[in-house]
Amino acid sequence: MRAWHFVGTHKPFERVDIEEPTAGPGNVVIDVKAAGLCHSDVGILEDEKWLANMKELPVVPGHETAGVISEVGEGVTDWKVGDRVAVWPMLGQGYSVNGAWEDRSEVSTETLVAIPDDVSFAQAAAATDAGMTSVGALTTAGVEKGMKVGIIGFGGLGQIGARVAHLRGAEVYVAEINESAWDRAREAGAVKVAKSITEFADVELDVIIDYAGFGVTTSDALDTVKSSGGGRVVQVGMGKLETTIDTYGLILGRKQLHGSAGGSKEDIEETMRYMASGDLTPVLSEIDFEQIPDGIQQLIDGTAVGRLVAKVTD
């Protein structure tokens, strides 16, 4: 069957043919219908630190998986062939085992989340990481009605985080360098949009969530979040894995810096409920399976629109 392999840092993904998986005890095999692309898929190509997350190479990337169960293993009783499912990527899926960039994928039933009837496979794939991570960060940040919330980045993650923060009743401010996305940010509920979060320094933001993570975005967030009452910055984006911060302002301002990685099954379910109701319609750019390297290049170039999702099988 078709697959893409990650073979090492600074090396391109390789298109390969590998053996089809079979469902071991407690596992199922999914015919993958849609597989998301993420900035962390760029990260593994560029930064050796990602290798610590991998048991061995080569590995099939792809931690945003949606499809249909085609085989169940011994002992599986709660799921059946034909069920539409998404995969919670926090239990070993992604880079430590083969992921979604293949025609069929073996996964544990512990990772399965049912896809509502009104949610497409592409939406469900995006919900598994982009949705889960975005909503999980809102939970980490304690976002609730009446709060002033800054969102850095209105890409695959930020568009969901901004919209759900608005749906929760927060006053949302978006920082996005790509002005072509500004109208969409306003439509999602942002009261103001600017190129840098520093332009909202006078707003006294309670929380800033950095969905970009390109070094300066993190330091700017800490400089901008309110000092009185313990402003909070939640770091999600991993565009760069290092930054320099002003510890003087952090300490005297009694500010907080939190890392937020992934989220829960409940975060995926919340995302898909908003999708099913029509309240959340993130922009998705669908590409063909063979175009995955082209999609990665779009992420590198910053030309990707919304969340990239590859159509894998019909």
From TrEMBL:
CDD domains per the UniProt record, alphabetical: hydroxyacyl_CoA_DH (cd08254)
SMART domains named in the record: PKS_ER
Cofactors required: Zn(2+)
Annotated ranges, domain Enoyl reductase (ER): 8-310
UniProtKB keywords: Metal-binding, Oxidoreductase, Zinc
GO molecular function, one term: alcohol dehydrogenase (NAD+) activity
Entry GO CC: cytoplasm
Bilayer-spanning residue ranges: none
Enzyme Commission designation: 1.1.1.1
Top EC class, one word: oxidoreductase
Catalytic activity: a secondary alcohol + NAD(+) = a ketone + NADH + H(+); a primary alcohol + NAD(+) = an aldehyde + NADH + H(+)
Alphabetized PROSITE patterns for the sequence: ADH_ZINC
Family membership noted in the UniProt record: Belongs to the zinc-containing alcohol dehydrogenase family.
Name of the protein in question: alcohol dehydrogenase
Organism: Microbacterium ginsengiterrae
